[in-house]
Amino acid sequence: MISQRRGRHKIFIGMAPGVGKTFKMLEEAQDLKEEGIDVVIGLLETHGREETAEQAEGLEQIPRQRIACGEKFLTEMDTEAIVQRSPKLALIDELAHTNVPGSVREKRYQDVEVILAAGIDVYSTVNIQHIESLNDLVAKITGIVVRERIPDRILEEANEIVVVDVTPETLEERLLEGKIYAPEKIQTALTHFFQRRHLIALRELALREVADTVEEDGNHSPSPSPTWSIHERVMVCVSTYAHSLRLLRRAGRIANYMNAELIAIFVDKPDAFLTKAETLHLETCERICREFGGQFLRVTSHDIPQAIADMAEQKRITQIVIGESQQARWPRFFRRSFTQRLMDLIWHKNIDLHIIATEK
After folding, report:
1. Beta strands across the sheet bearing 233-237
2. pLDDT tens column, 58-73
3. Which CATH architecture has domain 9-228?
């Protein structure tokens, strides 16, 4: 009999291998088992990690199926056996895994969809680098193209997403202690994927990707974590030019569309003198910014692009809105424009730059 109820899908996501996604999934499953919930392990990959294997003790495991591949046999998750067993909850590791040739379905996430359709709840695990739309960005950050990916809709359709988060320092300690990879693989991992700058960027990416879900959960928590405030932030650069009002309104619409914070910034040169008209103009900019629910910042610096880039990093900005350069064409042949300098300063910080056309 086919169930009319679709199973609920809970995904444990992290920035890299070793953060503890599988351990956390098993830990929750053990608690549910103690409450009398029928839990089985559909597929578990311990990768030789003793703590993970110990956490799985006492949980029923569905035997893997053997699939002929040439002259040898390989094993894969037995989706049909899980459906036939019909537990309340199935634990399935490594959601982005590609099944061995000869399997009924190509990808493990497709097996999970079959299990969910049968009315069985699923807990699964995945790393942020396996999300399809983030593939190019992850390759830019790490220099590694990830081949196994899942469609974004799998995250969008999930009933719950849990970010399993540790600091890059903690992850490095686990790696050096041999808790992630075998000893002979540690140094290679440290010099490639597990570089500190890679981990910092991937951690931010993981938190940002699921920020909306985490914030929604945080609204019902008595002690919300600081990570629940991480989401898109829009910064608009205003000047004494009249088009700043147009930029502010455009940035306000972008921030509203993205459900993001809005910050306006004006960089004042120490030796500059503002006329009364310019002062009134900036006061109008500040008023409009606050009407959008934004924050208006005034900073002093001789180097405007650097000041903007520094504040963007400090405020963890994800989007910057500027007007096209007002600089005349001839000077641009001899020195870089404001736009070019700003792009040079932010290109490696995963900040998108919006250049809005303006009237001269």
Report:
1. 295-300, 261-268, 233-237, 319-323, 352-356
2. 999 999 998 877 778 8
3. 3-Layer(aba) Sandwich (3.40)
